[in-house]
Design a protein that fits this description.
By secondary structure, the chain is mainly β. It has 1 helix and 7 strands; from the N terminus they run ββββββαβ. It has one helix at about 75-85, and strands at about 5-10, 10-15, 20-30, 35-50, 55, 60-65, 90. A 7-stranded mixed β-sheet has the order 1-6-5-4-3-2-7. Strand 4 and strand 5 form a beta hairpin. The longest helix has 9 residues, at about 75-85. The two termini are about 25 Å apart.
Length: about 100
């Protein structure tokens, strides 16, 4: 598997924007900055295997989601509320739930 276009999210969820559109949201490691991580959101999810945590987006990027959906400090939810202000959305998974 080509890892050049791979994004690893260590806290994550899938944001449902409509019946046809969902995106990955989460935190990834960011080296060389004052913050050890960076909030990331994707283009539309094309496929996602909730057993392996690997998905592919419309842009062709591979997203590897580590562990269960999580947001222990509420940072993902805060960023999503800010970005999606006034728009309808829901998280696909309960934070802290197992895959599936």
């Amino acid at each position: 598997m080509n890892t050049e276009h791979e994004i690893v999210l260590f806290h994550w969820n899938i944001l449902e924007l409509s019946d046809e559109l969902a995106i990955f949201v989460g935190l990834r490691e960011k080296m060389g900055t004052t913050s050890p991580y960076l909030f990331r959101y994707s283009t539309a999810v094309v496929s996602f295997d909730n057993q392996t945590g690997v998905g592919i987006t419309e842009s062709g990027r591979i997203y590897r989601c580590i562990g269960a959906p999580s947001d222990p400090k509420g940072e993902i939810r805060a960023m999503v509320r800010e970005i999606m202000r006034g728009k309808s959305f829901r998280f696909r998974y309960d934070f802290g739930s197992l895959h599936g």
